[in-house]
Amino acid sequence: MAIDRKNGFCDSTSTFHSKREPMSLPPNQQLDVTSFIASQPHRGKTAFVDAVTGRRLGFSELWLGVERVASCLYALGVRKGNVVIIISPNSILFPIVSLSVMSLGAVITTANPISTPGEISNQIGDSRPVLAFTTRQLVSKLTNSNLPVVLMDENRVASSGGGERAKIVGSLEEMMETEASESRVKQRVNQDDVAALLYSSGTTGKSKGVMLTHRNLIALVQAYRARFGLEQRTVCTIPMCHIFSFGGFATSLIALGWTIVVLPKFEMDQLLSAVEIHRPSHLSLVPPILVAMVNGAEEINSKYDLSSLQTVVVGGAPLSREVTEKFVERYSNVRVLQGYGLTETAAIVASMFTKEETERYGSSGLLAPNVEGKIVDPDTGRVLGVDRTGELWLRSPTVMKGYFKNEATAETIDSEGWLKTGDLCYIDCEGFVFVVDRLKELIKCNGYQVAPAELEALLLAHPEIADAAVIPIPEMKAGQYPMAYIVRTAGSNLSESEIMSFVAKQVSPYKRIRKVTFLASIPKNPSGKILRRELIKLTTSKL
């Protein structure tokens, strides 16, 4: 099999191979990701720092906490295959919960703390968790679930505030102080068992549970090792419920001995203060934060000392050449490493490693270690070669097991293990991946995925809306916002503000409609599918 060393392309199989050094994966099939992470050698001392309270967790305290919490979960009846949900802002305790659950062979599912009670209820209805971890402030979102709840706040259960109607069974702090039981029987966990269930809109429609196995997450750790190395310092501001943050801050970087300074949520001043105080060399950001740093560069550089910063890793949405160039110009000591990934690939597909690679503007980098790619013509199914645009298909040890209880798996992963990304891409003559457009209809707002079909279903439930279509509208800070085209029922005078308010009451802030245009009819093809590209052209012609 002859592989072109310059771009990784094999002519006989029409497959692109990673140019990176292959990563080694443990041959022992009976291994959980928590044990794998705990076994990795490093000389790091402090694992986590709470940027608000200053509380620190050393690695020894972290692993003692994981063992004790796992023992308490076992005592509560959590067993292999059970699902446990965590609904929490970023916290130095979030990884303890996740690692404890996965060490039992149970499955951790993460919910966004800004989700509405209805959205959380849908996720609970789909994933069927046996236990929930959440905070006093968020427990009211679980009052109709009848789930037993463990509170994650530092204070004890006695002062649980708004949780009287919830079925509170303990506190995480008490679990971390409870001696581990020696009577616990460790169940056999295989690398192919599901470790995490992270919800994504996938390539189409409604949010689906992405089943990531212990093997997927172990491969993710090894990919981080290849890219970053040991014992650095960083700040976590991206929500840990998101694969970009869960895969890095709650799992992989722990194995590498990194010190992670945790912010509960993104606030620019808090982020910049944390950089000045804690002196990280590395930040992981989504494009809207990078854009804000570009726009406010003069004030930021005069007010904060960011001289420790060497690397910014950007993911979650495409980043334009213009923004990248402006950032490097205004923060001259920092290199911007772009990457591209999906929840379905544990956030790993392509990435940049070196300063030289950052100069390939518009690219997402080279295929990650052990990743194979194909470029497939979406109309004919023909496999294409170098510098040809088509749908990117992927095969790698980080590709998900499938969607949880969802027939969309068969449409997304073929019989040979190729994942159809739904993204139009090309790979150039030197093996760099370029994301051109989306075949799938997702809108990326502030790094979050918004499914047009979900918002359209909501809009069509309004008695004065006869038809609706939702498309992305470009926005400098957020990347994209949802916009709605509406056909009103006969005689209706429904206004733009009434429609936006109707949606806003039922969805998370990033899903809110930001603009409404009224039409006589929604353009559709003969089978009734919305012709979104026509609407996008109509919108961009008016901007």
TrEMBL record:
It comes from the Eukaryota. GO terms for cellular component: peroxisome. CDD domains: 4CL. Its cofactor is Mg(2+). Residues 454-529 form the AMP-binding enzyme C-terminal domain. It holds the Pfam family AMP-binding. The chain crosses the membrane at residues 243-263. Residues 1-27 are annotated as: Disordered. The keyword ATP-binding applies. Keywords: ATP-binding, Ligase, Magnesium, Membrane, Nucleotide-binding, Transmembrane, Transmembrane helix. Residues 41-404 form the AMP-dependent synthetase/ligase domain. GO terms for molecular function: ATP binding; CoA-ligase activity. Belongs to the ATP-dependent AMP-binding enzyme family. This is Uncharacterized protein. It comes from Brassica campestris (Field mustard).
